Amino acid sequence: GRRGSMTGMRMTVLGCSGSVTGPDSPASGYLLTAPGTPPLVIDFGPGVLGALQRYADPGEVTILLSHLHADHCLDMPGLLVWRRYHPNPPVGRALVYGPTDTACRIGVSSAECAGEMDDISDTIDVRLWAENEPVTFGELSVVARRMNHPPEAYGFRITGADGRVLVYTGDTGMCDNVVELARGADVLLSEASWTDSPDRPEGVHLSGKEAGRVAALAGVKELLLTHIPPWTSREDVIAEAKSEFSGPVHAVSAGSVYDI
Q1: 160: Cβ–Cβ under 8 A, 6 or more apart, which residues?
Q2: Which candidate, 222, 251, 221, 183, places its Cα nearest to that of 18?
Q3: 94 Cα distance to chain centroid
Q4: Is the predicted pLDDT of residue 6 greater than 90, yes or no?
Q5: Strand pairing of 10-15 and 257-259?
Q6: How confident is the model over 92-146, as pLDDT tens digits?
Q7: How would you label 92-108 residue by residue, b for 16+ Cβ within 10 Å and e otherwise?
């Protein structure tokens, strides 16, 4: 990762494989740390709980879910096990922000039997995103905005105490909202799930070219590409993004650290 301010926001990539876990990475998950701020984990896809243990105590994190597709939230049942059955269980409940159906989605996936729902309220304090209303976590302020993706899905604009801004697209197709969300950001962490082609369905994902276009239209300083599935060429997606955006472009890897 880049060296930067040691006093600001730091992002550690826990997982960045798109749609499914990959041979070298869990699915979506990003650890954000800042002084005087609880560790935040953005998305909690398969494999993220294991990776998180290298960097932080899973019993101490607050979780921000962009949407409830399996590749972004299905290590949450593992976090329930961690909090309920760890020999030194954490005090209190985990704070989890997410879309409307968060408690149901996690409850169904954690249930003992088909057709049942685990009541997760003993372990998790679920809060729902209110679009464009900032939520403060220590020194970080997070604003969620709806994206263009089949379920209720959000992108996040995260501002540090020094005013530096990280924007995460979550999963989205091209739309005005993603450009507005990213406006002037220091770092744009953008999904790029496939290469550009006229037969790609609208309102699902960004191509490398579209991610570059968002970065250019929004005037961001740096573009980080993520959510690249194992079957998509990283090199092709990077090249596409560079064809649209003249600033720095990198594809993230699991374990990469960025000082925002």
Answers
A1: 8, 9, 34, 139, 140, 166, 260
A2: 251
A3: 17
A4: no
A5: antiparallel
A6: 999 999 999 999 999 999 999 999 999 999 999 999 999 999 999 999 999 999 9
A7: eebbbbbbeebbebbbe
Which residues does residue 98 pair with via DSSP β-bridges, in sequence order?
Answer: 128
The CA radius of gyration of the chain, in Å to the nearest whole number, is: 17
Beta bridge partners of 33: 10
Question: What's the 3-state SS for the chain?
Answer: CCCCCCCCCEEEEEECECCCCCCCCCCCEEEEECCCCCCEEECCCCCHHHHHCCCCCHHHCEEECCCCCHHHHCCHHHHHHHHHHCCCCCCCCEEEEECCCHHHHHHHHHCCCCCCCCCHHHCEEEEECCCCCCEEECCEEEEEEECCCCCCCEEEEEECCCCCEEEECCCCCCCHHHHHHHCCCCEEEEECCECCCCCCCCCCCCEHHHHHHHHHHHCCCCEEEECECCCCCHHHHHHHHHHHCCCCEEECCCCCEEEC
Q: Tell me: the pLDDT tens digits for 27-40?
A: 999 999 999 999 99
Spatial CA neighbour of 193 closest among 246, 148, 258: 148
Reported for 195-199, long-range contacts at CB under 8 A and 24+ positions apart, including other chains, are 195/232, 195/233, 195/236, 195/237, 195/240, 196/240
Neighbour-count burial for 116-146, b at 16+ CB within 10 Å, e otherwise: eebebeebbebeebeeeeebebbbbebbbbb
pLDDT, position 2: 46
